[in-house]
Amino acid sequence: MSDTDLFRALGNERRLQNLRWSRDPVAQFLPQRIGDLVEDGVCGQFIADKLGVNAPTRSEHLPVLQASRLVTAKRIRQRTFHRHDDEKLASIASIVETI
Q: Domain HTH arsR-type spans what residues (predicted)?
């Protein structure tokens, strides 16, 4: 993925909000019955509920974040859990410094 694609992924308020929440999922989301908020990430449905969007809209945004490697996805049973990637987010600062 190019730097341009990375910044396009960040160029959407819902995706940015998702990244903000995922930095501290314990503070932003209720505990989950399946999956640990920190280790596994947040269930995609919980993210959609908090954003106030339906499943198709969620399915638009989360794959963009995954493709840009800003979040990782993990399947547990029939659910997908999303967790932000600290290293990739930190690399954004170094990209901006080169501009």
A: 1-99
